[in-house]
Amino acid sequence: MAKASKNLKAADKTAKPARTQPQPALRAIKGDKVASPAAKPGKRAALKPVPLKAAAPAADDAPIIALNLPAAKLSPAMAAYFKKCQDRLGFVPNVLLAYAFDMTKLETFVAMYNDLMLGESGLSKLEREMIAVAVSSQNRCYYCLTAHGAAVRQYSGNPLLGEHMVMNYRVARISKRQRAMLDFAVKLTASPWSVEEGDRERLRRAGFSERDIWDISAVAGFFNMSNRIASATDMRPNTVYHGQAR
Amino acid sequence: MAKASKNLKAADKTAKPARTQPQPALRAIKGDKVASPAAKPGKRAALKPVPLKAAAPAADDAPIIALNLPAAKLSPAMAAYFKKCQDRLGFVPNVLLAYAFDMTKLETFVAMYNDLMLGESGLSKLEREMIAVAVSSQNRCYYCLTAHGAAVRQYSGNPLLGEHMVMNYRVARISKRQRAMLDFAVKLTASPWSVEEGDRERLRRAGFSERDIWDISAVAGFFNMSNRIASATDMRPNTVYHGQAR
Amino acid sequence: MAKASKNLKAADKTAKPARTQPQPALRAIKGDKVASPAAKPGKRAALKPVPLKAAAPAADDAPIIALNLPAAKLSPAMAAYFKKCQDRLGFVPNVLLAYAFDMTKLETFVAMYNDLMLGESGLSKLEREMIAVAVSSQNRCYYCLTAHGAAVRQYSGNPLLGEHMVMNYRVARISKRQRAMLDFAVKLTASPWSVEEGDRERLRRAGFSERDIWDISAVAGFFNMSNRIASATDMRPNTVYHGQAR
Amino acid sequence: MAKASKNLKAADKTAKPARTQPQPALRAIKGDKVASPAAKPGKRAALKPVPLKAAAPAADDAPIIALNLPAAKLSPAMAAYFKKCQDRLGFVPNVLLAYAFDMTKLETFVAMYNDLMLGESGLSKLEREMIAVAVSSQNRCYYCLTAHGAAVRQYSGNPLLGEHMVMNYRVARISKRQRAMLDFAVKLTASPWSVEEGDRERLRRAGFSERDIWDISAVAGFFNMSNRIASATDMRPNTVYHGQAR
Amino acid sequence: MAKASKNLKAADKTAKPARTQPQPALRAIKGDKVASPAAKPGKRAALKPVPLKAAAPAADDAPIIALNLPAAKLSPAMAAYFKKCQDRLGFVPNVLLAYAFDMTKLETFVAMYNDLMLGESGLSKLEREMIAVAVSSQNRCYYCLTAHGAAVRQYSGNPLLGEHMVMNYRVARISKRQRAMLDFAVKLTASPWSVEEGDRERLRRAGFSERDIWDISAVAGFFNMSNRIASATDMRPNTVYHGQAR
Amino acid sequence: MAKASKNLKAADKTAKPARTQPQPALRAIKGDKVASPAAKPGKRAALKPVPLKAAAPAADDAPIIALNLPAAKLSPAMAAYFKKCQDRLGFVPNVLLAYAFDMTKLETFVAMYNDLMLGESGLSKLEREMIAVAVSSQNRCYYCLTAHGAAVRQYSGNPLLGEHMVMNYRVARISKRQRAMLDFAVKLTASPWSVEEGDRERLRRAGFSERDIWDISAVAGFFNMSNRIASATDMRPNTVYHGQAR
Question: Is B123 in contact with B214 (CB distance < 8 Å)?
Answer without folding.
Answer: no
